[in-house]
Specification:
402 residues; mainly alpha; Growth Hormone, Chain: A; 17 helices; disordered C terminus
């Protein structure tokens, strides 16, 4: 198990490194081409639109044909996207690159399902936390690399660098990453038809009180509030603290660094102390407080508070929610439901940037972060009685569609 997990983490780290190299540069590239804040929000959302459309398909494919081929194809698609980003001289090419990035990024649920496949139930949240930690480490290093590449090689260098990393890690994964699903096949449960993406999505909507549905809704709001608004954070920092594209990477790097420290240093002990449900609640509170604090950023100390609370909150919420989801859905549909979770998260990550961009243009740069924080706090109601959620047998029908 450790060998497979190590190879997967190396793959996930390099993949995230490529994505994050260009992540904080997007608002500056877009505004240089004449984009408004609302247009920047649309560019951010384009990634999530493509991801939400592709995630259930990737999950279904990985359940039926294996996690490994899905991960490899996703990496190669991402490499194409970064090349387009490198040479994008118009807004429509930036949109195209973001859409293709989203198609490749739809495999994130497959990666999480891989971890769930090879982890014992009691260690699953911790393993998912380690996976998040290595991707956060990519978020620590990537922004600084992006800023260095801009200074050293011009505006094409970050995109070409990210594409090179994707090609490198796809070769590495093809050579060393082994399939995780030897013990799980489509014939494991005779007479039980596998779920479909459309059926699983419909079940989450029609049965919102089911354990899996509540976890997916909670995940969707929290991830939208964080990842849907933080891409707009450079606009706040530029307006109030004079930060620009040559140094913004270091501030995004700090957010990722806090995530790495929490996930590798204290997450496991916090899970043992509080349990997954209580820790997820605490994470929601921290995330909400951090988002609201962004609206008050006028000094560096206030910025430090906001940029600390947000990653601590997400480090607590996301591994716990994903681990709980992996247990309340049947094993045969784990990849599918991980994909569905990211579909709902993708819808949220479309809505939040669009609303944030519009809100910045109309109401001011801090207002969207306050609204996002309030919505995260409201998610606490979804955790009521979650400790008593049933744990289905492998052959159970999906609880979200029951």
């Amino acid at each position: 198990m450790k060998g497979k997990l190590t190879v997967l983490m190396v793959t996930a780290f390099v993949d995230m490194l490529g994505l994050i190299i260009i992540f904080p540069l997007l608002p500056f590239y877009a505004t240089r081409l004449g984009a408004s804040a609302a247009m920047v929000g649309a560019l951010v959302a384009a990634f999530s639109v493509a991801q939400l459309v592709s995630a259930p398909g990737w999950g279904w494919m990985s359940d039926r044909y294996g996690r490994r081929p899905a991960i490899l194809f996703g990496l190669l698609i991402s490499a194409v996207a970064y090349v387009i980003f490198a040479f994008a001289g118009t807004l429509w090419l930036l949109f195209l690159s973001r859409i293709i990035q989203g198609l490749g990024g739809g495999t994130i649920g497959v990666v999480q399902a891989y971890v769930a496949d090879i982890s014992e139930g009691k260690d699953r949240a911790k393993s998912l936390g380690w996976l998040s930690a290595v991707t956060s480490l990519g978020a620590v290093i990537g922004p600084a690399i992006g800023s260095v590449l801009v200074r050293a090689g011009g505006h094409t260098a970050p995109g070409l660098g990210s594409a090179s990393l994707c090609i490198f890690v796809s070769i590495f994964a093809w050579r060393f990453l082994r399939e995780s699903k030897e013990a799980t096949t489509t014939h494991d449960h005779a007479g039980v038809a596998p779920s479909t993406g459309a059926g699983a999505i419909r079940g989450v909507i029609v049965h919102p009180k089911a354990p899996a549905s509540r976890l997916i809704w909670l995940y969707a709001v929290a991830i939208g509030a964080f990842y849907g608004t933080t891409p707009m954070l450079p606009l706040v920092l530029a307006d109030r603290l004079g930060i620009n594209e040559t140094n913004v990477g270091y501030f995004v790097m700090y957010i990722g660094g806090i995530g790495v420290i929490v996930r590798t240093g204290i997450l496991g002990r916090m899970i043992e102390w509080l349990g997954e449900v209580k820790l997820a609640r605490l994470g929601l509170v921290f995330l909400a407080m951090g988002l609201v604090s962004v609206a008050r950023i006028y000094t560096y100390p206030t910025m430090l508070v906001a940029l600390t609370l947000m990653p601590v909150g997400t480090a607590f919420v996301f591994p716990c929610v994903t681990a709980m989801l992996s247990r309340v859905v049947p094993q045969r549909d784990r990849g599918l439901y991980m994909g569905v979770q990211h579909t709902f998260g993708g819808v949220s990550r479309v809505a939040f940037p669009l609303m944030a961009g519009y809100g910045m243009d109309v109401f001011g740069k801090g207002v969207p972060f306050v609204i996002a924080g309030v919505m995260v706090m409201m998610c606490l109601v979804l955790t009521i009685a979650m400790e008593d959620s049933p744990q289905p047998s492998i052959a159970d029908s999906p609880p979200a569609a029951a």
